[in-house]
Amino acid sequence: MSRYDRQMKCGAFGTRGQSALSQAVIMITGLGALGSAAAEQLARAGAGHLVLCDMDIVECSNLHRQSCYDEHDASSGALKAEALKHHLLRINSEITVTAVAEEITSLNIERLISMYHPVMMIDGTDQFSTRFLINQACHRHHIPWIYGACLGTKGTVVGIDFTGPCLSCLLSTIPETGEDCSIAGILPPVAHMTAAMQCAEVMNYMAEGRFSNQLLTFNTAVMKFQQTNAAAFADADCPICVHHQYSALAAPPAAVTKLCGGKFLVRVPVELFTDSGLSFQRTSPFFKYYQDDDYQLSLFHDGRVILTGADNTSSAETTVRQLLYR
Ligand SMILES: [Zn+2]
Q1: Nearest-5° angle of CA 310, CA 132, CA 155?
Q2: What is the dihedral of CA 40, 43, 45, 46, to 10 degrees?
Q3: Burial class of 90 by CB neighbour count within 10 A (0 to 12, 13 to 18, 19+)
Q4: What's the CA-to-centroid distance between 37 and ligand 1, angstroms?
Q5: Which InterPro entries does UniProt cross-reference here (predicted)?
């Protein structure tokens, strides 16, 4: 009996859905709560090739909701992309899994698309700047993708096809969930439900060649689900899906970006990973960590610095320079 027998017996998916899924290359950007949960479901369901994109390491604060990682991953400072790849291949050795331990930016997103030719993308990020990139790249390259966001007890999911309204069209409708989980918190079931709904849309598309075209929002505190016809929000003057102005793809990554949870991303020359005179308290081949009374700083091998303790982007840049150029 096929290991996929139970899902193939489900009429809405069937042998057609299974056949399409088994041949599909699916790129998942962001391997936190959403991306890792979606990846696990798709690995078990027999997705042909999963391309896992994330530049972060596993942290202890991830473990309550990111069920594919464990304490050993956190204590060893494992890269999420690599840790998840090994986890998925233990679940299903018949599929192909590629780990891409890179930050998704305008400099690499189209290169990765031309390298792996994904037929679908899943949004597992928690930043709108990255979602704008995904939206524009997917529209330009005719790749359907699935937006997902969650915060507290609320989740939002919508499948975005290049023939329908895009993220830019929907922006006025999508609640700003998922923007700062370190402050508002996130309940594990909400993250898993959001990822499950994203995977349900993958299976809809594999079986029928289309999404449900519903914008789904839910709140587990009151067990309320709402759905809205996404097509109703098409913007006849949308710069992306109507006028094909892909400005985010042409812009270089910002030197400093404010992140979720009072953190700042500052980009520095990659040589500083080996050349900085700062006395780091923790080091691995991928990152170095420093902490004092005022700041916490993680320096990654690709030149990214995550700083906690700064008040704004300007002071973040100044602080990073003062610390790393000692
Ligand atoms: Zn649009």
Answers
A1: 80
A2: 180
A3: exposed
A4: 28
A5: ThiF/MoeB/HesA (IPR045886), ThiF_NAD_FAD-bd (IPR000594), Ubiquitin-activating_enz (IPR035985)
The pLDDT tens digits for 184-194 are 788 999 999 99
Give residue 143 CA to ligand 1 midpoint distance, Å: 14
Tokens of 23: 């041949």
From ligand 1's centre to the CA of 238, what distance in Å? 5
CATH, range 256-324: 3.30.310
CA 280 to centroid of ligand 1, rounded, Å: 45
Q: Ligand 1 centre from 247 Cα, in Å?
A: 13
State which residues have CB under 5 angstroms from ligand 1, the bound ion. Answer: 166, 168-169, 238, 240-241
pLDDT in tens, 110-159: 999 999 999 999 999 988 889 999 999 999 999 999 999 999 999 999 99
CA 240 to ligand 1 centroid distance, Å = 5
Q: Read off the amino acid at residue 263.
A: K
In CATH, what is the architecture of 5-250? 3-Layer(aba) Sandwich (3.40)
